[in-house]
Every structure is written in C-alpha cells, then in structure tokens.
C-alpha cells in the first residue's frame, strides 16, 4: 500500500481508503463488515471513512466495533456531518453550530474514539452562514475532537471561500470528497484546478462507480445475485443512474485494456483515479472481503498514457464531465 499526503498538511493516508456507505448496518451483516475491515487492515489500509447519516448512524457503530482494539495512532478515521439523523427535528440537519457541536459528540461516541482525524461537511449548507460553520469547525479542532477539516461535493467557489475562512480562523481545511471515476469526471475542470491552488486533496468516492466498472453488470443480462443493484435496502436505488445499456456496453469495451495491464476491471477503475495527482485516496466500498483483497492491488499501478487514451475512446460520450453537476449537489431546500 502506498500513502499520500492529504492536501498541504503533514497527514498521510492510505491511497486506498475503506468506506462503509450502504454496507455496514445495512446491506451486509456485521460479521461480514468486520471481515472486510480486517481485510483492509491486513492489506495496509489505515484510513477509514464513514458518516453519521450512513444507515442512520449504524455504520459508525459497526465501524467503531470493527476497529476496537486497534492502535488508534495507526489509523485515520474520517466521518461527516450534514444530513439528518435521528427523529429529523428542525435542527437535526445542516452545518449550524448547534448541529455540528452535537453531531461530533455522537459520532465520537459511536466510533469509540476521542477524536476523528478528519471531520467533513457532507454537503454545502446554503442556509447557514459559512462563517458560523467554519467557527464551529475551528472550535471542534481546538477542542481536540478533530485534527483536520474537509468537505464533500463543494464547488470550486465554495472551496475557495471555505479555505480562506479556515486560514483566518487558524485551522486546516485539507480535503474535498467528490464522486470521481472513469465515468464521472465533473471535478476535472473546476474543482481540481482550484484545489491544487488551495492545497486541498480529493478523496474520491465510488471509484468503481458502485461496482459498475468491475464489468459484472452485463447489458441485457440478469443482475448478479447479492450485488448492489439487487439491494432493496438502498443500493439498488443509488446505482440505478449507471444501469443503462449504453453505459454497460461501453464499460465492456474496457476489458482488453484491463487485460493488457494484467489487472481486473475493478483494479483498473481504482488505479485510474489514482493517476490524478490531486487525488489523495480512492475511497472503496466492499460487500465481501475478497473485493478488498482484489481492489487493493491497484495501489502503485501506473497506467501508460496510450492506455489512458484508449480508456477515453472506449467510454466515449457516456462519461459525465459537466462541472455544473457539482453545484447540483448543494441541496436547494432544507431536509427538515
Ligand atoms: P465503489 O465504487 O468502490 O463501489 C463499491 C461496491 O462495488 C462494493 O460495495 C461492491 O458492491 C462492488 N464491488 C467492489 N469491488 C468489487 C469487485 N472487485 N468486483 C465486483 N464488485 C465489486 O464505492 P462506493 O460507492 O461503495 O463508495 C465508497 C465510499 O465512498 C463509501 O463507503 C463512502 O465512504 C464514500 N461515499 C461518499 C459519498 C459522499 O457524498 N461524500 C457518497 C457515496 C460514497 P456489491 O458487491 O454489493 O455489488
């Protein structure tokens, strides 16, 4: 496993990071969740990402249990705040001082730790002054409850404003967590150039496009049993944007590229995001430990320029590149 600096900070994280969205506390049983975490640790993954909203707080609890007994200093634990949890009262959402200060304590309790390494704003909150949010994050850092602050799905302008305030307040906003894969490249034109200027790294989610880039979903064929596309607890709904014949057909055209590199399709997908030097980590999910074993082999792989071009040609116009898609992630109304 290779490790990369997170933004301009001194913190190093494993370039393949394990995340538990849709799996822990939901699609997979707790014993399998623990096996996946063990597989990650054995492979040299030190960085684990979750969020209070995953499985309505259950994912943090399962991860906390799975990591119990590990040397805390050898781990980087990341979580997030924004989306509503619990009874969805008027203050159970967003980036107000109240919600941040209360949420961090709940997350630490469930994760069984006194600090997280990275605390992330899960979305931008248009209904709370950014100054209020950043002051609350500054206080979380000063209280020792988080070492660094990050954000998720913020636009380039939102990142610029956040980093400037963080500097004024004396803490480090070091990361952005966007969706990024061979199929979803909306950060390339604006978020990545701004992040390079600001000393911010990307920690990218769904690098395998939720399993689609593993090539296991074949156009016109039955869905593989036990896959996310069959998960009625939430996964099937989340993956459906990619379950189109034009996308699945294009993905099959990547098979010879993966073969040429002696990689599986999932490994190719993870290696592809890591070719971007503004990416600090590929954030992988897994429903079974074998997937972790397979996917970590993407660490340290170089894809030659000629094959990067062939990937672009193979995928053609099913790749989403519109920078405005990041802005669409900012909720237009409050959740509660
Ligand atoms: P991936 O693109 O890595 O998809 C993971 C899923 O793909 C697995 O659960 C599995 O599903 C399937 N898969 C993985 N490896 C293989 C393989 N080798 N062969 C076949 N299928 C495979 O990422 P996720 O979508 O899970 O997201 C990863 C993490 O990113 C999350 O856990 C979370 O931490 C973060 N995230 C952040 C978001 C944000 O808003 N900030 C939003 C979403 C995710 P199955 O076996 O069930 O088909």
Chart the SSEs and their pairings:
Elements: E1 3-5, E2 12-14, E3 16-19, H1 30-42, E4 47-49, H2 58-67, E5 76-81, H3 97-111, E6 116-121, H4 130-142, E7 146-151, H5 156-169, E8 173-176, H6 191-198, E9 201-205, H7 235-239, H8 245-252, H9 255-260, H10 265-274, E10 279-284, H11 289-296, H12 305-315, H13 324-327
Parallel strand pairs: 3-4, 3-10, 4-5, 5-6, 6-7, 7-8, 8-9, 9-10
Antiparallel strand pairs: 1-2
Helix pairs in contact: 1-2, 1-11, 2-3, 3-4, 4-5, 5-6
Bound molecules: NADPH dihydro-nicotinamide-adenine-dinucleotide phosphate.
Residues 19-21, 23, 49, 152-153, 177, 205-211, 214, 216, 227-228, 266, 283-287, 291, 294-295 line the site of NADPH dihydro-nicotinamide-adenine-dinucleotide phosphate.
Write up this protein.
The chain has helices at about 30-40, 60-65, 95-110, 130-140, 155-170, 190-200, 235-240, 245-250, 255-260, 265-275, 290-295, 305-315, 325; strands at about 5, 10-15, 15-20, 45-50, 75-80, 115-120, 145-150, 175, 200-205, 280-285. The chain is of the alpha/beta class and about 325 residues long. It has one domain (about 5-325): TIM Barrel, CATH 3.20.20.100. An eight-stranded parallel β-barrel has the order 3-4-5-6-7-8-9-10, surrounded by six helices. A two-stranded antiparallel ribbon has the order 1-2. Strand 5 (about 75-80), helix 3 and strand 6 (about 115-120) form a beta-alpha-beta unit. Bound molecules: NADPH dihydro-nicotinamide-adenine-dinucleotide phosphate (NDP). NADPH dihydro-nicotinamide-adenine-dinucleotide phosphate binds next to strand 10 and helix 11.
């Amino acid at each position: 496993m290779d490790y990369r600096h997170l933004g301009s900070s001194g913190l190093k994280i494993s370039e393949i990071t394990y995340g538990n969205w849709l799996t822990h506390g939901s699609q997979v049983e707790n014993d399998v969740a623990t096996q996946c975490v063990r597989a990650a640790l054995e492979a040299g993954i030190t960085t684990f990402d979750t969020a209070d909203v995953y499985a309505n707080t259950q994912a943090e609890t399962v991860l906390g249990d799975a990591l119990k007994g590990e040397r805390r200093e050898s781990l980087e634990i990341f979580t997030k705040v924004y989306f509503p949890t619990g009874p969805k009262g008027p203050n159970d959402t967003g980036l107000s001082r109240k919600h941040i200060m209360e949420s961090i304590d709940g997350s630490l309790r469930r994760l069984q730790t006194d600090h997280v390494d990275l605390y992330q704003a899960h979305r931008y909150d248009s209904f709370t002054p950014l100054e209020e949010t950043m002051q609350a994050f500054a206080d979380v850092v000063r209280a020792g409850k988080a070492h660094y602050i990050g954000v998720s799905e913020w636009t380039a302008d939102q990142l610029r404003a956040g980093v400037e305030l963080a500097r004024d307040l004396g803490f480090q906003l070091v990361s952005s967590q966007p969706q990024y894969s061979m199929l979803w490249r909306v950060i390339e034109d604006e978020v990545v150039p701004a992040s390079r200027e600001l000393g911010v790294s990307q920690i990218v989610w769904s690098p395998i496009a939720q399993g689609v880039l593993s090539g296991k979903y074949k156009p016109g064929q039955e869905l593989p049993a036990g896959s996310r596309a069959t998960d009625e607890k939430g996964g099937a709904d989340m993956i459906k944007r990619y379950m189109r014949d034009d996308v699945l057909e294009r993905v099959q055209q990547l098979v010879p590229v993966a073969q040429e590199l002696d990689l599986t399709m999932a490994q190719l997908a993870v290696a592809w995001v890591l070719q971007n030097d503004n990416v600090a980590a590929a954030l992988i999910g897994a429903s079974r430990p074998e997937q972790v074993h397979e996917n970590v082999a993407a660490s340290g792989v170089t894809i030659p320029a000629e094959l990067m071009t062939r990937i672009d040609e193979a995928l053609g116009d099913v790749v989403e590149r519109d920078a405005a898609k990041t802005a669409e992630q900012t909720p237009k109304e409050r959740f509660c």
